[in-house]
Design goal:
- The protein is elongated and about 160 Å long.
- It starts with a helix and ends in a 7-residue tail after the last strand.
- It has 362 residues and is of the alpha+beta class.
- It contains six helices and 14 strands.
- Strands 5, 7, 8, 9, 11, 13 and 14 form a seven-stranded antiparallel sheet that branches.
- It has two domains: 94-200, LysM domain (Membrane-bound Lytic Murein Transglycosylase D, Chain A, Roll), CATH 3.10.350.10; 209-359, Glucose Permease (Domain IIA), CATH 2.70.70.10.
- Bound molecules: zinc ion.
- Zinc ion binds next to loops.
Length: 362
């Protein structure tokens, strides 16, 4: 025993350092063991193979999700509530059912296309191809862009279809083949009869308004078309005036402007607004009634083949064969016939053909 004490005394430094080393090692080992015990995941349940296919499997539960995100700080991501969908051009038609109070110009505006494109694409659907003949419940095919839907017929070729769709603007066969919505195989372009295809920029000959509302000139046999309207035979002389002024106080358009499907201009005019003769001439038509949608209508022959027409009037103040001066009061604006609200429908015809009034009004 004394020997041991003597040894300790003699090697005091060595014994102390060994002791401290042993303590440090023990502490390190202990803490490592403690950490692994705390951090160890609970053993997962494993599915046990079953003898029969129908037997229930042992359910395996997923580890619980981390709820307190503060324990795992990271880069936050702002919640984006709005999804940005890039605006792509529409390629397919939209079926639109006309509801009460719908006007063709507002439908066209809604789909960002021309009124004419809807008229072209709905052959036989809209009466007289006239945008003012819309009835609730009517099913319209709205094209994706300006142009025309066309039902492929037996014997049609891309060349022949392009040629007959070029009434207003030239259409090339490749415009039809390349339109993505037509889904035409570019390696072997073919279309089966009965298939509806879209012709970008396409147009067709529209119903000729003069078939219903013939132009009446001051002399007899001046009428065109085949309607039962009388007229003509007023005089061979009379004033000639080919300088045209606005038949209303303003030239503001309300509704349809001049286009292939609307052969006149709709001038803003409330019910009862005075309507004036655009130039001097002879009244060749002053007729009440529906008149195929024109309502109460006046025509004035200004000589040299020029005839002006005033429609949807609430009142007619002149009679047939009456001579009027430029600016004479001839009637009052209204909404008779087919009109979406009161306005003046005004046409200028030369030799029985409609022209754009904007090109002639002073
Ligand atoms: Zn009109």
């Amino acid at each position: 025993m004394n020997k041991i004490l003597q040894f300790l005394k003699a090697n005091r430094f060595n014994v102390t350092s060994w002791g401290v080393t042993a303590l440090v090692v023990a502490a390190l080992l202990g803490s490592t063991f403690w950490w692994t015990q705390v951090g160890a995941a609970s053993p997962a349940t494993r599915p046990i193979p079953t003898a029969q296919p129908g037997q229930n499997q042992t359910s395996v539960s997923l580890p619980a999700p981390v709820t307190n995100s503060m324990e795992f700080p990271g880069i936050g991501r702002a919640l984006q509530l709005k999804t940005n969908i890039p605006e792509r051009p529409r390629m397919d038609p939209v079926k639109y059912t006309v509801s009460r109070g719908d006007a063709m110009y507002s439908i066209a505006k809604q789909f960002n296309i021309k009124v004419d494109s809807i008229i072209y694409s709905n052959k036989g659907v809209i009466k007289y191809d006239n945008p003012q003949f819309l009835t609730p419940g009517l099913q319209l095919l709205i094209p994706p862009t300006d142009g025309m839907y066309y039902t492929w017929k037996d014997g049609d070729t891309f060349e022949s279809v392009a040629a007959k769709s070029s009434v207003i603007a030239k259409v090339k066969p490749e415009d039809i083949i390349n339109f993505p919505g037509n889904n035409i195989d570019l390696t072997d372009p073919q279309v089966k009869p009965g298939t509806i295809i879209f012709i970008p920029g396409g147009s067709r000959t529209l119903f000729d308004w003069s078939q219903l509302m013939p132009t009446i000139s001051r002399v007899n046999n001046g009428s065109t078309g085949t309607s039962d309207f009388g007229g003509g035979g007023c005089a061979t002389g009379g004033p000639v005036d080919n300088v045209f002024h606005s038949p209303t106080n303003s030239l503001a358009i309300s509704g349809y402007d001049y286009s292939p499907s609307h052969l006149g201009i709709d001038l803003a005019a409330t019910e009862g607004t005075p309507i004036y003769a655009a130039a001097a001439g002879i009244v060749t038509m002053a007729q009440g009634g529906d008149n195929y949608g024109y309502g109460n209508v006046i025509q004035i022959d200004h000589g040299n083949g020029f005839v002006t027409l005033y429609a949807h009037l609430s009142q007619i103040n002149v009679s047939r064969c009456e001579i009027v001066g430029a600016g004479s009061l001839i009637g009052l604006a209204g909404a008779t016939g087919h009109a979406e609200g009161a306005h003046l429908h005004f046409e200028i015809r030369i030799g029985g053909s409609n022209v754009n009034p904007h090109d002639y009004l002073q």
